[in-house]
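Revision sheet: structure tokens.
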Amino acid sequence: MQDTRRQKVKTHRFEPTDTISGFPVRPGFFDRVGASIFSGGVNFTIYSINATACTLCLFHHHEDEPFARLDYPENYRIGNVFSMFVFGLEVENIEYAYCFDGPYEPEKGLLFDKKQYILDPFARAVAGQSVWGQKFSDARFFKARIVRDDFDWGNDSSPNYKMNELVIYELHVRNFTIDPSSGVKRPGTFEGIKEKIPYFKELGINCIELMPVFEFNEMLNMREYNGNRLYECWGYNSTCFFAPNTIYAPDDKYNHEGTALKELVRELHKNGIEVILDVVFNHTGEGNEEGPCFSFKGLDNNIYYMLTPDGKYYNFSGCGNTLNCNHPIVQHLVRECLRYWTINYRVDGFRFDLATILGRNEDGTPMSKPPLIQSLAFDPVLGNVKLIAEAWDAGGLYQVGKFPSWNRFSEWNGMYRDDMRRFLKGDDGMAGAAAIRLKGSPDLYPEDIGSRNASVNFLSCHDGFTLYDLYSYNEKHNEANGWNNTDGANDNNSWNCGIEGETDDEAVLKLRHRMVMNAAIALLMSRGTPMFYSGDEFGNSQYGNNNAYCQDNKVAWLDWNDREKNADIFELFKFMIAFRHKHSAIRKKHSSSYGLPPISTHGFVPWMDDYSWESKQVGIMYAGRSDIVYACFNAYWEEIEITLPEIPDGNGSWICVVDTWATPVIRRRKVDTLNYRMGPRSAIVLEYK
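Predicted:
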């Protein structure tokens, strides 16, 4: 008979085996990359393919000289992994970095310097800057913090919306609330965003997309121009992929980094709002040959970056260097990073900046089946998160509609932006293209995969004109950036409505408001996932600057006074977002109980599209199980008359709920005839009741 009595289990105490620089140590846990706190001490693990030796450097808080240097003995290395467990550390006052020895052969891409302090790529927090715009001791020298991961998520649960249910709101953490008009207690921080949750709910959006929140150095390339300090404000030059930006949460307890962001995510989830992070795995803040060396360059430069045969940097990112994403080491880094943010920060998705770089081979050529993208598509931890690709890069690779997705990635639809901008401002020959974009771009995303809403539709984002500026400027006005107006896109497909820039002309202002509302209606009545930039819902302007990456001032900050100034635009956005949520027929395919196709486009006469060169009118109708809605756009500068579709049952009527030519714009009005006269440059929305 089996003895079921409790057996005594012999336990072994984890004890030091050596002393290095006065610290009791032993070989560490080789499979725990980064700095991990255990009972009794801290485990430090890092790897390098080409390094011949590694030294752990320990610093006191705010000090630039290490108080201890611990060389890894040979038996503290397995393969290319260095691991050491250090006993008795008071982590509350310790920062760390590494020094690596190895060959210095720039022509081969090897840049080892045993005197150079190297930031742990897997650091969970970065020491240094804690006040925006203040340079710390040396911009080329970063240290890591040791983080306690003990945040209590409670019963947090993601809303877990489908892509077709989302309305995405893109925002920059600092710019969103830093202006005094925001009225928040903690402007420019994660806490400031949390204070705006009631506003998100009033507006109706259910997903925010945060521009980069990974640690970055806004002082990189800081310069003076015309009396203004220009910073790297947007955050697209990452310092460390695993660490949240310290400046966005200055009150975080020292060894509990990330608490403010975690509290924000938890509170957003409680209020039915998802969080997507804009992530930058195409380049880093180390730049080209003239840039600083603080992490990957001094670790394994020829592995982490794409290099030319003579050891220079390929620049498909437009920012000096390009990550070598499909090297197995970099694949591992990216995958582990996304898993970390999914597990430890509970984020709901990722938008990949310049995502085509993720599909380039080590020599820069595009791959048909990129292993990194495939591994992300099938990773079990990432199984429910949204994956969104910006399917182009600065090297000219454009893959909108062709991004290798394995049915997992959606895309920023740049063709939607370009075609709809041209149609809405009245360009010739664009009605047919507009009809396709309104229907969800079936030419790019065929119906067999389109059900996942692969198309993320947008007319504006952080990069380019705001929606209001799209109808206030014919040309970009980036002079304040200090590059003689040579930076930023030139092909904006914008129209100033007759006067360039700011004006007091009431007729022009009225037209601009109408154009913005027409665009909002088009975006929110299109099949696919709508996304717009923060402030567009109340007419925010950047005064014609379409590349405000360096403007830490009124140019890029949201002026919340515009919410009252442009109340008509705000109310229209609110109404249309609610209308989209109400009518599922707009968002996804249903079998109609009326015998109608689920989606159809119309010309002046129902069922007869007029896609001639001169046509500037498109109508679109969605028919679901219990709802039918119709929108029509007149991009012509004169009135037109259209005929509304006749519904087979004949028992209901068309109700006009929005007409941007009418006063007021939003109202319920029964339409007594199928003939409808539309005003110049206007849009209408109707529902069948």
